[in-house]
Amino acid sequence: MTQLAKPSMFENPYRPWPARITSITELTSTEKLFELRIIDPDVREAFHHSDGQFVELSIFGVGEAPISISSSPSKQGFIELCVRRAGTVTTVLHDMQCGDVVGLRGPFGHGFPFEEMKGKDILLVAGGLGIAPLRSLINHIHDERSEFGNVTIIYGSRNPAEVMFRSQFEMWRHRKDFNLILTVDRTNDLPWDGEVGLVTKFIPGLELDPSNTYGAIVGPPGMYRFVIAEMRKKGLHYDKIYVSFERQMKCGMGRCGHCMVGHQYTCIDGPVFNYWEAVNIQGAM
Ligand SMILES: Cc1cc2nc3c(=O)[nH]c(=O)nc-3n(C[C@H](O)[C@H](O)[C@H](O)COP(=O)(O)OP(=O)(O)OC[C@H]3O[C@@H](n4cnc5c(N)ncnc54)[C@H](O)[C@@H]3O)c2cc1C
User: Fold this and answer.
1) pTM as predicted
2) By the 8 A CB rule, do 135 and 149 touch?
3) Which ligand 1 atom is at minimum distance from the Cα of 248?
């Protein structure tokens, strides 16, 4: 008897695969972390992503939105998405419950060069929701910690109420193998025992070996220029600084052209670019 080929996400990349919400964690008043499991066991098993990649998340009858994968590729069988309630799709998602079913396409795009980063010191800077894609890389480095040199993470939020993954980071602040700097722009009179100030404030004081350090930055568009300037002052090479761009996109596969910037499609050439590539894309920075 002929064996039927196992289904794959890539047979028809326009087809969303049903995935069940298996856990929901409220992170802040506007962000939730969703754990999703693709229902078809073969597709679930075949699903592999790299840090910095995204999926197209659909809600049947509502629409589709690109969302970064926030869990480490070292964890298989499920993915985590950290989602801000922003508009049509994400508002409906925020009202869903465990057991509800959504659609997933992907994973799409180029992520961070995890293998290339091994053996090097790492400086990760996240602002606001930028922690969502960077958390995948952070957790992946954690899972293979012995492969990396010094790891510094600077995570900035506007105020203490907007700090995500607080319990994970609270624990990490006491670890010796991560230099974790949590900072807020202002405390708004809320309890806070972290730092106060913009993420850029903490880069000049770091002891870095620029020839052996990779930097990665994800955050609001206005943040990039200033963080890159500080990393450059520390001597980090252009092609060792990675940034992730969000552009409005639809297909995720370089067909529709919605996310085109200069001569590149953010969805397939990015969303992660090294700074050298980014400065050479007209309009990217
Ligand atoms: C590669 C990529 C990764 C992303 N990862 C995440 C993530 O991990 N978590 C998360 O919460 N969101 C993420 N986003 C953003 C998310 O896709 C948008 O907020 C999306 O519009 C939400 O869909 P919606 O239907 O809820 O909102 P919509 O109803 O589509 O729109 C909400 C508002 O946001 C505007 N908008 C939509 N997309 C963008 C954009 N890319 N840049 C600026 N404005 C935009 C719209 O014009 C509108 O004003 C990502 C976007 C990209 C491109």
Assistant:
1) 0.91
2) no
3) 41
